[in-house]
Design goal:
Strand content: 15-25%
Bound molecules: adenosine-5'-triphosphate, magnesium ion
Largest sheet: 8 strands, mixed
Number of helices: 16
CATH class of the largest domain: Alpha Beta
Number of strands: 13
Length: 420
């Protein structure tokens, strides 16, 4: 949550931080400056706010008081003011007369003043944001209104997708999930969305089909209890949610069903790794667009280059306020195969690979045959070293998120934080 103290420049939300989805609510904004309006306009087009209904107008608190003389206040009312501490309190007294008790009021102010902040909280204001408003910071503040920081941790969704079939995306996703849970001690859920041909269970030496189809078939019944029941435990901090891995059933998947499941799963563990199959459908696009991080695995070949570039371009355009996806180059150095040099590949895509994994059929073949991870069959191999490096990079992002959450929960201990 942003507060007078938290919105100091060094603590403002950045693209790396985890920002939750804003639920389906009405949000009315009365700003006083074009800059604030523009930042919120950008925020309202962001994927994390796409379910909310946002209207923006100028005029500050006075205009809001006028408008709500004759109509009910929305779920969230955001007002900007340039007033000093005393002026703000007077203006808000007028607003309180027309404001419904269920409305969460957020004030954007131009004074970074702890005393004002405390008075606002006492008065029942839900949040105080110090201008200048950033788009991601604004989304974070609004999402924070609906997410109790004391509740179970919100998971970061990291999706792995191959730039073409068979490039090693699933194997890498599973190894990274294992490393993050075993080595970095992060509670992780691997969700295998490759329902017909998924390999997660095989790679972890599990037999038996997983229950994700049950959840996809009746998304309205999905809650954390059901999801917990459908998951297979792979370790003290690692669980798997997977599909039947058979072609016996016809599987048509709705984006809405996957959304529901992932939203429940992300409340169950701090990290959710999603193994996204190499195919293109509305629900695949939806899953990628709504991930906190996307990892594209490619081999150094022309078809993978073309597809990776198309994916990167689409994702960058659709998620202008997010970090670009990560790139992994895998199976580099296949004997006698003409390959695109790593640097040329990176230049063409516009992203440096986070790691380059050698072609290592012995290690990967043994891991697959044994139903074990690369770290278990060849802990000293170059492949294990590189995969460990990627896991550390991802754990670094995870830690940044945890630190932000810790500071939020400390602030939440302040009394009178919620509106009366
Ligand atoms: N660096 C590597 N060196 C050698 N073999 C590898 C390497 N990475 C993955 N493999 C092997 O490549 C095969 C395909 O891997 P995987 O199933 O993970 O790919 P995928 O991209 O998920 O494929 P699909 O499109 O079928 O989902 C597996 O047998 C795996 O063990
Ligand atoms: Mg796969």
């Amino acid at each position: 949550m942003n507060t007078a103290m938290q919105t100091s420049p060094q603590m403002a939300a950045t693209q790396d931080e985890l920002v939750a989805l804003v639920p389906r609510v009405d949000i009315h904004i009365f700003c006083e400056t074009q800059e604030t309006g523009q930042a919120i306009q950008v925020a309202s087009g962001d994927r994390r706010m796409s379910r909310a209904h946002v209207t923006i107008q100028l005029g500050g608190i006075a205009a809001a008081v006028q408008v709500y003389q004759s109509q009910p206040t929305p779920h969230v009312l955001v007002v900007e003011t340039h007033g000093s501490r005393d002026q703000v309190m007077v203006e808000l007294t007028r607003l309180a007369e027309v404001c419904q008790a269920t409305t969460k009021v957020v004030v954007i102010g131009h004074v970074n003043d702890v005393i004002l902040y405390r008075e606002l909280m006492k008065a029942g204001i839900s949040e105080y944001i110090v201008a200048p408003v950033t788009s991601v910071g604004f989304i974070e503040s609004i999402a924070g209104l609906f997410n109790d920081p004391k509740a179970a941790p919100l998971g970061r969704i990291v999706s792995f997708v191959g730039a073409k079939g068979g490039v090693g995306s699933s194997t890498i996703a599973h190894n990274i999930g294992w490393a993050l849970s075993q080595r970095q001690n992060i509670d992780t859920i691997i969700t295998d969305l490759d329902l017909a041909f998924g390999t997660a269970a095989l790679n972890f030496n599990q037999d038996g089909a997983g229950g994700i189809m049950d959840a996809l078939a009746q998304p309205d019944r999905v809650d954390s209890t059901l999801i917990d029941r459908l998951m297979t435990k792979l370790g003290s901090k690692l669980s798997l949610l997977n599909g039947p891995s058979t072609v016996d059933r016809d599987m048509s998947i709705e984006a809405h069903a996957v959304e529901t499941i992932l939203n429940v799963v992300r409340y169950s563990a701090p990290l959710v790794i999603v193994d996204v199959p190499n195919m293109w459908a509305p629900w695949i696009k939806y899953t990628l667009l709504n991930s906190d991080e996307i990892i594209i695995t490619a081999t150094p070949e022309l078809p993978a280059l073309r597809n990776a570039k198309n994916l990167v371009d689409m994702l960058k355009a659709a998620r202008p306020n997010d970090k670009p996806p990560r790139l992994i180059l895998n199976q580099v150095g296949v004997p006698k195969r003409p390959e695109i040099p790593v640097n040329d590949f990176a230049k063409a895509i516009g992203i440096q690979p986070s790691v380059v994994i050698p072609h290592d059929p012995q290690t990967f073949g043994m891991a697959q045959g044994n139903g074990q991870m690369v770290f278990e069959v060849a802990p000293k191999s170059k492949s294990a070293e590189v995969l460990g490096d990627l896991a550390r990079q991802l754990a670094g992002n995870q830690k940044a998120v945890a630190d932000v959450k810790k500071s939020s929960s400390l602030l939440a201990k302040l009394p009178l934080f919620k509106k009366k």
